């Protein structure tokens, strides 16, 4: 099994959860989706995240889905599982279950009830106690959680938590926060942890890489975009990274619309053969005929631009 630790880099793709047209877990499509992601070069998978409809799954479904992903991956890449919960009993139970199934680590975001810096730090101290030696990722996603964590708060959390190996940076705007955290580790104020970014399906990925991010942890129906951008940046070809990113940007931006983003992603993954159905469990958005027409146009233009880039 691949280790999940502070050296993590590349693209940890946030996956969707495939359902049948009737809303049941689609385990055959889960296998297809895993193969689709690995064929496009991702270096890790993150499941049961916000865009994975985790809150719409039962506890048993969460375990079943995790088991299917682990079995299909067969240890080829790390698997990180979202286990965020206001209650530590549920978090601890799910963490034990997924780690026993073969997950590489877990991801935790603060609950929306957190209001002060001290509350946030105390909460994550208890996360550390609950998870024990399990490696975990600190998710900073204020758009979803409503919780604002400053760079100083995140540094306090990291100092207190030896098994926090990664920051999933999703604050927006957040480039200066990313720079501050990386500068602190460069000075030796805090140990260096992996920083993977998730802003809007990678809408700021080239800039985040230049600020010291180690890669991306987010979702997009074209994961090869993030793989190629990260690879180009890593070999020092920053202009190529920007050129590739720019070719995908119109579609990535469309996919990040509030409200319909998940429907867009699942529609595109369905079109690309990664999943058998674009079904979203209630409550969830639906695309209009005009939405679909927009996407067809964007995909055509994207394909043309990629051919021009070579």
UniProtKB/TrEMBL annotation:
Keywords (A to Z) from UniProt: Lyase
PANTHER family linked to this entry: 4-HYDROXY-2-OXOGLUTARATE ALDOLASE, MITOCHONDRIAL, DIHYDRODIPICOLINATE SYNTHASE
Molecular function GO terms recorded: 4-hydroxy-tetrahydrodipicolinate synthase activity
SMART domains, sorted: DHDPS
Similarity remark: Belongs to the DapA family.
Pfam families in the cross-refs: DHDPS
Domain of life, per lineage: Bacteria
Chain residues that bind pyruvate: 217
Protein name (Swiss-Prot/TrEMBL): Dihydrodipicolinate synthase family protein
A GO-annotated cellular component: cytosol
């Amino acid at each position: 099994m691949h280790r999940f630790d502070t050296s993590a880099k590349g693209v940890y793709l946030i996956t969707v959860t495939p359902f049948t047209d009737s809303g049941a877990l689609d385990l055959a499509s889960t296998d297809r989706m895993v193969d689709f992601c690995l064929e496009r070069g991702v270096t890790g998978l993150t499941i049961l995240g916000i865009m994975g409809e985790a809150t719409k799954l039962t506890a048993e479904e969460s375990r079943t889905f995790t088991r299917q992903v682990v079995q299909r991956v067969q240890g080829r890449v790390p698997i990180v599982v979202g286990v965020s919960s206001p209650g530590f009993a549920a978090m601890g139970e799910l963490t034990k279950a997924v780690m026993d199934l073969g997950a590489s680590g877990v991801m935790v975001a603060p609950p929306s009830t957190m209001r002060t810096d001290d509350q946030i730090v105390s909460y994550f101290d208890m996360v550390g106690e609950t998870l024990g030696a399990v490696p975990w990722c600190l998710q900073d996603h204020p758009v979803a959680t409503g919780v604002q964590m400053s760079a100083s708060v995140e540094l306090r959390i990291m100092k207190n938590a030896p098994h926090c190996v990664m920051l999933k940076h999703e604050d927006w705007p957040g480039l200066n926060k990313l720079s501050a955290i990386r500068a602190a580790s460069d000075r030796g104020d805090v140990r260096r942890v992996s920083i993977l970014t998730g802003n809007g399906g990678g809408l700021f990925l080239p800039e985040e890489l230049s600020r010291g991010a180690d890669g991306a942890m987010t979702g997009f129906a074209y994961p090869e975009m993030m793989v190629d951008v990260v690879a180009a940046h890593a070999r020092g070809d920053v202009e190529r990274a920007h050129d590739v990113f720019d070719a995908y940007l119109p579609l990535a931006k469309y996919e990040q619309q509030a409200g319909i983003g998940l429907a867009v992603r699942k529609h595109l993954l369905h079109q690309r053969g990664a999943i058998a159905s674009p079904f979203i469990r209630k409550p969830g958005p639906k695309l209009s005929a005009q939405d679909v027409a927009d996407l067809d146009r964007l995909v055509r233009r994207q394909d043309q631009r990629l051919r021009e880039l070579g």
